[in-house]
Structure formats: C-alpha cells, structure tokens
C-alpha cells in the first residue's frame, strides 16, 4: 500500500491551485536543474545536481540513465540507495493532483535496485533493497526486497526466494 498524505481542495481542481502548495520559483529552478540533468552524460555531475539543487538523497555509485525524470515539485521527497540504476526515461513522482484533492508521498528506492526503462514510480512507494523492476512497469505499490516485478498493473514475477532458487539452479547446470 502506498503511504500518502492527502489534502482536500474545495474550489477548482487541485492542479489549478498548485502554486498555493509549492512556490512558482521553486518549480522554475527545479525544472531547469532537471532538464540539465536529463541530458547530462556525466553521472557524477548529474548526482551532484540532484543532491545540491534538488536536495534529493542519492547514494554513492547510483546511476540515473538519460532522460530520467524526477518530480519537478517535490524532488526532495525522493531517496535512492547506493549502487542502484534508474533506467532510461523513468519517471519518479512524489505528488498527484486530482480534481478534489492532491496527494504527496515519499519515494524510497533501496540499495542495488534495478529500475528498467520507461517505468513510472507513483508517490508513496518503497522499493526494497535488491529489487528488480521490469521495463515499462507502473509501480503503484511497495516492492519487497529482492523481488522481481513487472507489468501494468505491476505483478510479482519472482519472489526473493524464487530468485534465489532460480540462481542456484543456473549454477548447477
């Protein structure tokens, strides 16, 4: 289950009122930094941009592939452990604006996690250490450590135990 903070909106839809929830200038600054980082071919500089200007918690040796898109309004709510890979064109969201409410949630990605290309990670999700997320997945709930998930809707492909057994059987052949 996703862990979200919910805020009701009484007038226009929540997105129409977004600058009541986040500063216009913060969004402008974040947009510029994110666009620079999306095209940045140097991973150390990309991580430095994320840590320094967006206040994201990024572990050592973590790699964001080309065109990865982090949340433009609340990127500081994203945490990625060490030695993880965020695949090409992946989107990590920490907010949802709906008609009558908006929702915020931290995204926590563990250590040595592999996120495939074109994945969308929704707010309030935790992805455990050593998990693998297949390309094109919409991550709409938590992913247990060591689990291989994929699809839309996301399903468990292999549990941690099945992954270990699969690896052992490969070693025997």
TrEMBL record:
Domain of life, source organism: Bacteria
Naturally occurring in which organism (per UniProt): Priestia filamentosa
The keyword Heme appears for this protein: no
Protein's name according to its UniProt entry: Acetyltransferase
InterPro entries: Hexapep, Hexapep_transf_CS, Trans_hexapeptide_repeat, Trimer_LpxA-like_sf
Presence of keyword Transferase: yes
Keywords: Repeat, Transferase
Gene Ontology molecular function terms on file: transferase activity
Native organism taxonomy: Bacteria, Bacillati, Bacillota, Bacilli, Bacillales
Classification via PROSITE patterns: HEXAPEP_TRANSFERASES
Pfam families cross-referenced by the UniProt entry: Hexapep
